[in-house]
Amino acid sequence: MNRIAIIASTDRGVTLGLILQKEFQKSALVSTRPSERTEVQSITSIADFLQTSFHSFDAFIFIGALGICVRSIAPYIQDKKEDPAIVNIDDHGKFAQSVLSGHIGGANELTHKIAAITGAQAVITTSSDIQNIWQLDTLANQFGWKIRTTSSLTTLISLFVNNKPTAVLLDIKDSGTTYLEKNKPDFVDFYYDYLQIDFSQYELFIAVTYKIYNSSLPTLLYHPQVLHVGMGCSRGIETHLVEESFRDQLFQHQIAIESIKSLGSIDIKYDEEAFIHLAQKLEISFFTWTADQLNTQQVKNPSETVREKLGVDSVSEASAMLSARNQDLLLEKQKITVASGKKYTLALTLDKTAQRKAMIAIIGAGPGDPELISVKGKQLLEQADLILYAGSLVPEELLTYAKPDTIIRNSASMNLEEQIELMVAYYSQGKMIVRLHSGDPSIYGAIQEQISIFEERGMDYFIVPGISAFQAAAAYLKSEFTIPEVVQTIILTRGEGNTPLPEHEKLNEMARHKATMCIFLSATISKTVQAQLLEHYPEDTPIAILYRVTWKDEEVYTGTLNELAAIIREHKLTRTVLIIVGVAIGARQNRSQLYHPEHKHIFRTGKPVKL
Q1: Do residues 264 and 231 make contact, with C-beta atoms less than 8 angstroms apart?
Q2: Using one digit for the tens of pLDDT, what is the confidence trace for 161-188?
Q3: Under a CB-based contact definition with an 8 Å cutoff, are residues 542 and 512 in contact?
Q4: In what order do the strands lie in the sheet containing 59-63?
Q5: Per the similarity annotation, which family is this (predicted)?
């Protein structure tokens, strides 16, 4: 919310309002009560203030009696799609109640925030919130979807909140569909193929789709923008004829025009009025591609004529494929002649990120404590069909998140080729594969060689970061590794053992910076490491040696740099050891300017919002 008005009716309310104003930076605190505080803006009456300001703010927080709030806003209420959010909280901060525009206006969410700030009890009376089920009227705005319905949205919401049997079809995947799958109500069944739905078993049909469905049931279609259209045309083709024909083509193929995300063509069409007009009308991006770029695509319907004229095999199909980063055409090239006799072609492709297909997730498991995996990492483990984990480096407790039928394999006994063979087998079946690495996979994770193979084979993958051991070490040591005016750099490195270091990354050279140095994989060469560091760090520089930090059997030793090798030798540490070197360990000096009372920034300007 951009602008919030806080209206306090009592002196106690003003005190509470000052607390809320600090939390909501774009807020104005007004009151009829006199106050010496400059943050409080005086108004003659609440009625006069609302008469001039009711539609100037996104939300109003009334502090005082609920009756005053209701009577004050009554003359100005018009429509839930336009009315601001209204929340009322008593001046003792016991109850915060959503009054108006709970979903669309955001009053319910604001109520929860106010309750969290003040310790009040949030009072929400909306049925879907009470049941903790999807809020059908806000999902589209939340996830960037557009809505198409066969009945009034109110009717559909009524069926849903009354828990009528509901069939939900998911034709694509995005953050919204992931949310739906994670928060499935008991009366909902998911489908991924329209033909598998027995509509006689349901009273409501919901779909997240780029298609148009004509179900016999009350229907709610959410259309995400996931389609990329490629087009070619005769020069100077009529704007209105292209738009009319384009809409008709989509209707014939039961494609939702609301799901179109971009229009693409060859670069010589950058000024084609018909394309520019269509993109503007649909409020989508218009891209053009060079001939060289278009020729990188292997198309299904190459054209000799287009090759002779433009030097490319395809415009429409290749443009759609490039824009979507997807070689699979949803709609192959269509050749259309409009009323004037001029022609255009079009093709459609689904955005690669929206496809429901096999995927490999490379996930950082964190430093050892199974609770230190990211929320996203845990969710993916719960969905995985195959989990390939890095042996003794990953705690087996993480594997308990897996589904009962998930295949779980330890990669420690497998070479790279065997690992790839297993992943390829599951990928070819459209399965969800998790490659689970310790710490953060980008730091000594040996993922580069896997990624190269995935890309060579055209296998889709993504990386989920994890907490690295050096971050866990800072937490254990209760230290900030970057201290103002003392040390502002962290170096992550290793000593030179069997794997040589690049010439410009020698340990003794990096020690010149006297930064906070985090040294991995070097316990067995600790004597050499110590000698190289002592070339520039003083002997009494603090060190910490952490074995399996955050694991149940963790061991942590502290000392000074001249004791490093002796500590490691005494405790017989050889592997899974992290060495931290630097004055930041345990330091407690030097205040940051970030929270200094005289320091202002965009979230703490010290200036009230003007009425």
Answers
A1: yes
A2: 999 999 999 999 999 998 998 899 999 9
A3: no
A4: 40-42, 27-31, 4-8, 59-63, 85-89, 95-100, 121-123
A5: Belongs to the precorrin methyltransferase family.
